[in-house]
Amino acid sequence: MKKNVFTLFFAIFALTMTTKAQDCFKFMPQKEGTVLETTQFDAKKHKTGVSSLTILTRTSTQLNVQLESKDAKTDSVYKVEFAYICKDGKMYVDMKSYLGNQLANYPNGNITVVDAGELEIPSDPKEGQELPGGTVLVSIMQQGISIMKIGVTVSNRKIEKLETIKTDAGDFECFKITQDTESKMGFIKVKGSSAEWISDGVGVVRSENYDKRGDLVSYSVLTAVKNK
């Protein structure tokens, strides 16, 4: 009898933990091989680049992806692999994803990650909910010597209202996250803010970057969802 009770308890516990882990990635594609194509624009709606996020492998606690960013002017490409992690029922994204477009002009072999934090994407977002920030910093290397550091610090993250976002890839119900940003390139620091619209089963559908006065500087939109 005790053995049966223990077995039943373990089965319920395992099912609960599995469901909890699955909920972590509810805002990301579930199928391995799915490619999310995003196009970047400046404030004047001129195309500046294209990024592709590919779902490589998926487990109950980790989603491994590859981000490929291509600059529209130079055709230079930057690739980086990182992961979405499930911890305590919450999804966390590696902040290296924030530097994809900025690093498109640098060869992969010349970039060293100095520090990379994680940002929480809640499984059950609520309007007005505040979220912790984070920092990512990389060093551009030349002949083994660091010639410049590039980084982004994100703070004052907050969940705003639900909105419907329309793109070439379709119509998406999203929750909006706003945050303050500070970008660093060498000795130059630029403060501003940004917003992201995140949809169930897709991830980031639209993002916008603003200067310190609140004027739009650039934006990106999801333009295609491809399944291999």
How are the secondary structure elements laid out?
Elements: H1 2-24, E1 35-42, E2 47-58, E3 62-71, E4 77-87, E5 90-94, E6 111-116, E7 118-121, E8 130-131, E9 134-142, E10 145-167, E11 170-185, E12 188-199, E13 203-211, E14 216-226
Antiparallel strand pairs: 1-2, 1-14, 2-3, 3-4, 4-5, 5-7, 6-9, 8-10, 9-10, 10-11, 11-12, 12-13, 13-14
Walkthrough of the structure:
By secondary structure, the chain is mainly beta. The protein has one domain: YmcC-like fold. Helix content is 10%, strand content 61%. Strand 10 and strand 11 (170-185) form a beta hairpin. The longest helix is centred in the N-terminal third of the chain and has 23 residues, at 2-24. It is globular. 25% of the residues are buried. The model is unreliable at 1-22 (pLDDT under 50).
CATH class: Mainly Beta
Number of helices: 1
Quaternary state of this entry equals single chain
Main sheet attributes: strand count, strand direction, barrel closure:
14 strands, antiparallel
By helix and strand content, what is the structural category? mainly beta
- Gyration radius from CA atoms, angstroms: 19 Å
- Termini Cα gap: 49 Å
Question: What would CATH call the architecture?
Answer: Beta Barrel
Number of domains: 1
Q: Low-confidence segments, ≥5 residues, pLDDT <50? A: 1-22
Q: What general outline do the C-alpha atoms trace?
A: globular
Mean pLDDT: 82
Percent in helix: 10-25%
- Share of β-strand residues: over 45%
Number of strands: 14
Under CATH, the topology is which? Answer: YmcC-like fold
- Secondary-structure element order, N to C: HEEEEEEEEEEEEEE
